[in-house]
Amino acid sequence: MTDHPKFPDLWDDPADAWSSRSPERAEFSQRRWVWEAMEPAERIQRLNGLAAWVKWLRNRHELHNEIPACWYRHPPVVERLTALYAGYVRTYMAPSPGRDHAEIEWIHALSSLLPQLKRPGCSGGHHDPPHRKRDQAAAGEDFEEFLQAQWPTTAPVTHPAEAEVAHLDPPL
Fold it and tell me: Where is this region: Disordered (predicted)?
Protein backbone atom coordinates (compact mmCIF):
# COMPACT_ATOMS: atom_id res chain seq x y z
CA MET A 1 0.00 0.00 0.00
CA THR A 2 1.34 3.44 -0.92
CA ASP A 3 1.26 6.53 1.24
CA HIS A 4 -0.62 8.63 -1.30
CA PRO A 5 -3.31 7.53 -3.72
CA LYS A 6 -2.54 7.28 -7.40
CA PHE A 7 -4.31 10.33 -8.71
CA PRO A 8 -6.05 10.00 -12.05
CA ASP A 9 -4.75 12.17 -14.86
CA LEU A 10 -7.33 14.88 -14.31
CA TRP A 11 -4.64 17.55 -14.29
CA ASP A 12 -1.33 17.70 -16.11
CA ASP A 13 0.29 18.92 -12.91
CA PRO A 14 -1.89 18.96 -9.77
CA ALA A 15 0.04 21.87 -8.25
CA ASP A 16 -0.36 23.87 -11.46
CA ALA A 17 -4.10 23.25 -11.53
CA TRP A 18 -4.44 24.93 -8.16
CA SER A 19 -1.89 27.70 -8.43
CA SER A 20 -2.34 28.90 -12.00
CA ARG A 21 -4.13 32.21 -12.37
CA SER A 22 -4.91 31.89 -16.07
CA PRO A 23 -8.57 32.58 -16.99
CA GLU A 24 -8.91 29.07 -18.44
CA ARG A 25 -7.70 27.48 -15.21
CA ALA A 26 -9.82 29.82 -13.09
CA GLU A 27 -12.95 28.82 -15.04
CA PHE A 28 -11.97 25.15 -14.80
CA SER A 29 -11.29 25.46 -11.08
CA GLN A 30 -14.68 27.01 -10.39
CA ARG A 31 -16.68 24.25 -12.06
CA ARG A 32 -14.38 21.29 -11.67
CA TRP A 33 -16.28 19.48 -8.92
CA VAL A 34 -19.83 20.62 -9.54
CA TRP A 35 -21.20 17.28 -10.63
CA GLU A 36 -24.24 18.73 -12.39
CA ALA A 37 -22.02 21.09 -14.43
CA MET A 38 -19.97 18.23 -15.89
CA GLU A 39 -20.57 16.45 -19.14
CA PRO A 40 -21.45 12.77 -18.54
CA ALA A 41 -18.05 11.53 -19.78
CA GLU A 42 -16.27 13.92 -17.43
CA ARG A 43 -18.53 12.81 -14.55
CA ILE A 44 -17.56 9.20 -15.18
CA GLN A 45 -13.87 10.05 -15.33
CA ARG A 46 -13.96 12.11 -12.16
CA LEU A 47 -16.12 9.60 -10.31
CA ASN A 48 -13.54 6.93 -11.16
CA GLY A 49 -10.82 9.20 -9.79
CA LEU A 50 -12.83 9.89 -6.66
CA ALA A 51 -13.44 6.15 -6.24
CA ALA A 52 -9.71 5.42 -6.37
CA TRP A 53 -9.10 8.08 -3.75
CA VAL A 54 -11.95 6.89 -1.51
CA LYS A 55 -10.58 3.35 -1.67
CA TRP A 56 -7.20 4.68 -0.55
CA LEU A 57 -8.84 6.85 2.14
CA ARG A 58 -10.86 3.96 3.58
CA ASN A 59 -7.71 1.82 3.78
CA ARG A 60 -5.19 4.42 4.90
CA HIS A 61 -7.36 5.91 7.62
CA GLU A 62 -9.13 2.64 8.51
CA LEU A 63 -12.55 4.07 7.72
CA HIS A 64 -14.30 0.92 6.52
CA ASN A 65 -16.96 1.30 9.20
CA GLU A 66 -17.40 5.05 8.65
CA ILE A 67 -17.55 5.19 4.84
CA PRO A 68 -19.85 2.53 3.41
CA ALA A 69 -18.73 0.52 0.40
CA CYS A 70 -21.81 1.89 -1.42
CA TRP A 71 -20.82 5.55 -0.78
CA TYR A 72 -21.27 6.39 -4.49
CA ARG A 73 -25.01 5.57 -4.23
CA HIS A 74 -25.58 8.33 -1.67
CA PRO A 75 -25.41 11.84 -3.20
CA PRO A 76 -24.83 13.61 0.16
CA VAL A 77 -21.89 11.29 0.85
CA VAL A 78 -20.51 11.85 -2.66
CA GLU A 79 -20.64 15.63 -2.12
CA ARG A 80 -18.80 15.43 1.20
CA LEU A 81 -16.19 13.04 -0.16
CA THR A 82 -15.73 15.33 -3.15
CA ALA A 83 -15.05 18.25 -0.81
CA LEU A 84 -12.61 16.15 1.19
CA TYR A 85 -10.86 15.04 -2.00
CA ALA A 86 -10.53 18.58 -3.33
CA GLY A 87 -9.23 19.69 0.06
CA TYR A 88 -6.79 16.79 0.12
CA VAL A 89 -5.40 17.74 -3.28
CA ARG A 90 -5.07 21.39 -2.23
CA THR A 91 -3.37 20.41 1.01
CA TYR A 92 -1.04 17.63 -0.04
CA MET A 93 -0.50 18.16 -3.75
CA ALA A 94 -0.22 21.94 -4.07
CA PRO A 95 1.79 24.53 -2.19
CA SER A 96 -0.09 26.07 0.73
CA PRO A 97 1.60 29.40 1.43
CA GLY A 98 0.41 30.86 4.71
CA ARG A 99 -1.24 27.60 5.76
CA ASP A 100 1.27 26.21 8.22
CA HIS A 101 -1.26 23.75 9.60
CA ALA A 102 -3.01 22.79 6.37
CA GLU A 103 -2.58 19.08 6.98
CA ILE A 104 -4.01 19.33 10.49
CA GLU A 105 -6.93 21.37 9.12
CA TRP A 106 -7.63 18.69 6.52
CA ILE A 107 -7.52 15.91 9.14
CA HIS A 108 -9.90 17.99 11.29
CA ALA A 109 -12.25 18.41 8.31
CA LEU A 110 -12.18 14.65 7.74
CA SER A 111 -12.98 14.00 11.40
CA SER A 112 -15.80 16.52 11.44
CA LEU A 113 -17.44 14.98 8.34
CA LEU A 114 -17.18 11.32 9.39
CA PRO A 115 -20.58 11.23 11.14
CA GLN A 116 -22.21 12.50 7.94
CA LEU A 117 -20.48 9.86 5.81
CA LYS A 118 -21.73 6.93 7.84
CA ARG A 119 -24.84 5.13 6.59
CA PRO A 120 -25.86 2.68 9.34
CA GLY A 121 -28.53 1.13 7.11
CA CYS A 122 -25.83 0.03 4.68
CA SER A 123 -23.58 -1.76 7.16
CA GLY A 124 -24.72 -5.16 5.84
CA GLY A 125 -25.07 -4.06 2.22
CA HIS A 126 -26.62 -1.15 0.38
CA HIS A 127 -30.12 0.02 1.25
CA ASP A 128 -31.75 2.95 -0.46
CA PRO A 129 -32.84 5.65 1.98
CA PRO A 130 -36.61 6.01 2.33
CA HIS A 131 -38.11 8.41 -0.18
CA ARG A 132 -39.26 11.68 1.27
CA LYS A 133 -42.93 12.34 0.78
CA ARG A 134 -42.90 15.98 -0.09
CA ASP A 135 -45.17 17.73 -2.51
CA GLN A 136 -43.09 20.64 -3.79
CA ALA A 137 -46.13 22.61 -4.94
CA ALA A 138 -47.78 22.27 -1.53
CA ALA A 139 -44.52 23.19 0.21
CA GLY A 140 -44.32 26.40 -1.87
CA GLU A 141 -47.94 27.28 -1.08
CA ASP A 142 -47.35 26.61 2.60
CA PHE A 143 -44.34 28.92 2.59
CA GLU A 144 -46.35 31.70 0.94
CA GLU A 145 -49.13 31.27 3.53
CA PHE A 146 -46.52 31.40 6.29
CA LEU A 147 -45.14 34.67 4.93
CA GLN A 148 -48.62 36.21 4.84
CA ALA A 149 -49.87 35.15 8.26
CA GLN A 150 -47.10 34.27 10.68
CA TRP A 151 -44.90 36.10 13.14
CA PRO A 152 -41.93 37.06 10.92
CA THR A 153 -44.08 39.18 8.66
CA THR A 154 -46.96 40.26 10.92
CA ALA A 155 -45.37 41.05 14.30
CA PRO A 156 -45.22 44.75 15.24
CA VAL A 157 -41.86 46.46 15.23
CA THR A 158 -40.24 46.53 18.67
CA HIS A 159 -36.73 46.60 19.99
CA PRO A 160 -35.80 43.95 22.56
CA ALA A 161 -34.22 46.54 24.89
CA GLU A 162 -36.97 49.17 24.46
CA ALA A 163 -38.41 48.68 27.98
CA GLU A 164 -34.96 48.87 29.55
CA VAL A 165 -34.01 52.19 27.95
CA ALA A 166 -37.43 53.89 28.20
CA HIS A 167 -36.75 55.27 31.68
CA LEU A 168 -33.26 56.62 30.84
CA ASP A 169 -32.80 60.27 29.92
CA PRO A 170 -31.55 60.61 26.38
CA PRO A 171 -28.04 62.06 26.05
CA LEU A 172 -27.75 65.76 25.28
Answer: 118-172
